[in-house]
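Final paragraph of the annual report: two paired records, presented back to back.
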Amino acid sequence: DMEALSNEEIASFNQLKKSTLQAFSPAKNTNAMEDFCSLLEEFKPDLIALSILEDTFPIALDFAEEAHRREITVIAGGIHPTFSPEVVIKEKCVDIVCVGEGENALLSLCKAMIANESYENIPNLWIKCLDDKIIKNQIGPLVNVNELPYPDYHIFSPDRFYRPMQGKILRILPIEMHRGCPYQCTFCEDPSLNVLYKTIGENYHRAKTARRLIDEIKYFIDEFEANYIYFNAETFFAMPQKYFFELADLYPKEIGLPFWLQTRPETITEERVRLLKQMNVSNINIGLEHGNEEFRARVLKRKMANKRIIDSLKLLQNADIPVTVNNIMGYPDETRELIFDTIELNREISTATINAYLYNPYKGTELYDL
């Protein structure tokens, strides 16, 4: 048996017909640790898999310690373990760390555990031995995102996917469009993932084809009654141009559901807005991030003019497409005057929603070491 915290890489386990996977996602109105302990008692897992961000690491350790107390093997993966494996593996309650993508590594690990075989040489895994020696395996090849099984959301509670959206409660299903991003934003880990996989001659940024996306969405509609699509991608238009044109042709014919996407302001054009409108786009999230051109280009490596941002948002406004704008404040060396540059730029655009977030220095980003 296997136990996993929410992680899109669960799709790999569909191949393990002789084992069982159970997701743990804390309920809003109950004690998460009590729920977790009850699930451990009921399910009696052999493996706990934790997907961790740096700011969720202390929370994850609470669950890992409970599993460790019960002598259950714990593997930690995700962005934080990828860029801080030495920090994560030193925790007594963590037995294995997955560096980079986890589909192949987790599948190999579970197969080895089921067969009672050694898993010391599985690529991507750092393994803590009984004498506390750490085996550090090299990362292995990337997965082909077009060949992955569809995510098995049956392991989640049916009510997990109901979300409020523009005054309605909808059944929203996330669709992974592509992995990675070709841009170099210094507050994001994606550039470092690109560097990590270039060491083995691989390109981390990979996009699903339009046909694969359409087929996957059809599956979610048939299997989970999705009525709203959440395109999960750092930058929607980072896909190859021909993929978008194919998707723009197929989506209204075969899907037609409203959808949400995120992209950068400089990727917005009149033609793309027209096609998105025909596809039934519901909301677009735009990363503005900072209002000072010089600071944005020098510190964040987002080289675009404020006029380009304003013009892009105007195109969306004229098309009557609701827009949410993201801003980040509290960057290193940011002054009060620079923050007000961001405020002033937001005053020049028309949006449905404005988000403002405090900057978090994540390990694996260029700004972390500034």
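The closing record of the year follows.
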Amino acid sequence: MDIDKWFSKLLDDPCNELIQKAMDEGQIPVGYSCSYVPDVMLSVEGLFPIRMRAPGITGTELADNYLSSVICSYTRSLLEFALDGRYDFLRGCVFAASCDHLRRLYDNLEYLRRPGFSRILDVPHKTGDAAITWYTDELQGFAKALADHFGCDMSTDSLSKAIRENNAFNAILREIGELRRSDHPVMTGTEYHHLVIAANSSPKKTLLPIMEKIRDDLQSRDPLPPYRARLLLVGGHLDDPGYIGIIESQGGLIVEDRLCTGSYPGLQPIPETDDPIAAIARHYLTKTSCPRMMEAFPERAEDIVYLAGKCRADGVVIQILKFCDTWGVEAASFVSYIRDAGIPVLRLERDYRLSGEGQLRTRIQAFIESMGK
């Protein structure tokens, strides 16, 4: 299978063929917009989660009437797609009060184009015991709302089953991801990001046999041609593998990522306990590792240095969306911390829509050359 070609076609349509197939079988798609939304709770029998994206968007003329120009382009793109009816196939949407921008998206959808089911989760800014207890209570109310609206089973057994299936699927993705990190990688970071984004925006049960086949086929694939540098990609939301493709076109192979839409820490297993909602609350609150969380910068920064060493990265690329307040502030501190650790680092700002390819190529090429590669 040509991974880039097949998955590019799949990801071009927010209501792709796998979603259509699941809907034809009676499954209900529910959209979400942030990694703090526990998508595993939308994976119980009868439901499946879809991370909202705006592939191929060309402008945000409609959304710009309602959102400020200093709201990030991801938020404006989602509102544009919603106002254009591109998410009408979703039976509900779940948001997290994770930043002011996504809160404004929720507010506008409430009165402009309210989904059949609409919920915003109140996410604490800390990860201590009190915060986890708070978020557990929040998710218990969320589970009841899902059961009341969709008639789905949100019992302990049902949620435990969803956790087991989620962990099994993510284990396959982690196994595939390991193939990027070897001394002689057999897949590119672009290919792998296709798989991760597809997993976020397609029903996992339908996608599972495809992922299993890819994993098996990669075992016998020849190593990639020589590349100039091994890179760790860090940052917030990134759902366009084409961005990684441009980086890799200059010889910088992405061997690991630490993105809110990436493999780490998003694919880590959820503990299987007798209280699945408490386990889910603790997992999503402590593992997402977003700059919005207070008092945890040292852990996040050290995590990047650790990952860079683990995957033997020659350098770190930090990508952030323009006007993303949380990542904009944190990225500046990351640059200093990573440089002090003796690791070359490059910070890039971008729009949600892929643009400025020429400038991006030039900066990546200069960064790799600065490392003597």
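The longest strand covers residues 252-259. This concludes the annual technical report; the extension proposal builds directly on these records.
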